[in-house]
Amino acid sequence: MPPGAMGVLGCDEKTAFSMIKELGYADQVEVACFNSPVNLTISGDPAQVDAVLRHAQAKQIFARGFNTGGKAYHSKHMALIGERYEQLIAPVLQSRSSTCASSTTMTSSLFARNLTRSDARDPKYWRQNLEKPVLFSQAMTSALAGREYHVVEIGPHSSFKIAMEDISTSLSCAVQYSPTMIRGIAPIMTIMQLTGIMFLNGFDAPIKKINGILSPFASGDLPVVVTTIPPYPWKRGPLLWSEGRISSEYRQRAHLRHDLLGTAVVGGSKNVYTWRNMLKLQDVPWLHDHKLRDILVFPASAYIAMIIEGFRQVITSRNIELTSVLLREIKFLAMLTFDDDDIATELFTELCPMQNSLVHPSEDKFCFTISSFASTKATIHCRGMVEMGTDGRDMSKSLCRCQRGDREDGWATRSACDSCAFRLRSPVDMRTTMPKATWYDTMRKEGLNFGPAFQLLDDIEHVHENNVREVFSTCHPASCSPATGSSPVHPTVIDSLFQASIISTTSGRRNEMKGKIPVSIDRVKVTMKSANATSTVRARSTFGSQYTAICDAEMFDGDKALVLVNGLQIAPWLKHDFNHDVAPREPFLEKIWIPERELEPQKNGLATNGVNGVNGTDDTDGVHGRPSGLIVRCFSTLIRSR
């Protein structure tokens, strides 16, 4: 028999035949086995098989040869011994009686159909089985079509595991597969594992026989259960069990873990509420869409969502109905950045009751702090105050901030504000609408790299009237991934108000866009009504200083406000990027300190400068006229400035 070789190709039948034909090896190389729709075995002359494998690798197709002892099975090479093989196997088949049960069905990998008893006892069938290709993929597809099977491979290794996965994928159904043995693992372990899997899937597995293999009683009688032992004298008294508070609080936790807030720390004094979270980016994939350039930064809106959830857990544990939450004097002190998806960041959130007096702390007003701990160092990222939103403002009416408002805190109902009502009714020609892609691309160029989860604004409109910096937009919360818990507003929704505020500073001119981020907020009020439907966002801004802007924003559904943001201060995350044209200061009064000089009282020092000499009064302190000299110098500077 001439030498031969075999190899595996990770491609379909059409691609394999095309490569063989392309190289001109149709007479030297054959497809020996159709393992799966995307996996084939080739067989033939060694040089030609090796050439086909190298040609496939050059095309980025998986190709690998394997050792067969120089034999090319299922090819023309086997025809040389086919007749002799048939002569040797014929007596064996004739001498064996049929022991197969009538319900046993064999699917032939030669014909890809069920095999009859006469075929199985025919020596010519087994000769063809040696010489012709193995139609394993076609046979398994035929056997599995229309029925559910648990496939068990009987052999020295799980050779057909990948092939069965490919066949299962092509059939669009889940085919359960289990091997009997796996190379490198003790056979007794794999057989016991297979028995357990079969039992769990409802088959009548021979568990006793399998367990008896390693049993010390395998050669004799199996042990029996002893039933003559005297009953245990149970003492039916009080339960002698004492459980610590930490264990009890951990078992009886009232709230599930929140993706951002984490879980409550047990065993505390209950005077301060603390939550701890080991935050991994793989648990909150939407955080990948909040970046400053290429730096992944924890969003400011996420801090607000954490406080709302923590405050909700505290208030609801006291059986108090919570309709809205008010956060005040929020300060964002330090950025929280991430470098690796697999490294967990340890976050702590604390709520400490505010003191109404030295004796009585508040029951519904708290100071909060959010910090991270890394490398033996704690960093505070956010702090502020939170309380129940029961301060007299009606959340059923959408609110706006106006200097002419009739409320002490600067908020006025829209009906009471003629200016805002006019803008709401402003004609179309006073507004300019730009697509969301335009603004998000502009912000990205300034370093505000918002991904799909944070791109919730749409139909962004600017109002052109009396130099008003105001933006209207719609928000689509359904496109974001909600965090675990019952938080009414997702952080990406809150962040859309910040984005609208940043856009409002441009007055609709994209060239004025500068990369700014929140640094503080005076007030944020959130209703506990879920904001999952499309809602309207409005934002206004004024420049507070050379580098910062003060913004107000609101989100409302019809006439009902969902989120109100008052006094949002935004500043450039890189100061040199904030280059607004600001007029230089021109003070009309300037103090100039001059060297001290000796002046005689009531003499030339005052009259010569034309100030105290006008009315003849004496403004000196009697000690060399020093105060009068200072007043004269300041006054003369004022005259020159004018």
Give short descriptive properties of this protein:
single chain; about 650 residues; about 25% helix; 13-stranded antiparallel sheet
Structure overview:
The chain is an alpha+beta fold. Among the domains are: 263-577, Polyketide synthase dehydratase (Thiol Ester Dehydrase, Chain A, Roll); 585-642, no CATH class. Strands 9-10-15-16-17-13-24-27-26-25-23-22-20 form a 13-stranded antiparallel beta sheet. A hairpin with a 5-residue loop joins strand 25 and strand 26 (549-557). Helix 11 packs across helix 14. The longest helix has 17 residues, at 79-95.
Task: Write a brief caption for the model.
With 642 residues, this protein is α+β, with helices and mostly antiparallel strands. It contains 16 helices and 27 strands.
The fraction of residues assigned to DSSP E strands is 25-35%
CATH homologous superfamily title of the domain at 263-577: Polyketide synthase dehydratase
The CATH architecture designation of the domain at 263-577 is Roll
The helix content, as a percent range, equals 25-40%
**Overall mean pLDDT:** 80
The radius of gyration is 41 Å
| Main β sheet profile | 13 strands, antiparallel
Count every beta strand, where a strand is a DSSP E run of 2 or more residues.
Answer: 27
- End-to-end gap: 115 Å
Structural class: alpha+beta
Q: Briefly, what CATH class of the domain at 263-577?
A: Alpha Beta
Count of discrete alpha- or pi-helical segments spanning 4 or more residues = 16
CATH fold title of the domain at 263-577: Thiol Ester Dehydrase, Chain A
Backbone shape:
extended
Strand order of the largest sheet: 9-10-15-16-17-13-24-27-26-25-23-22-20
Low-confidence stretches: 391-428, 576-583, 602-642
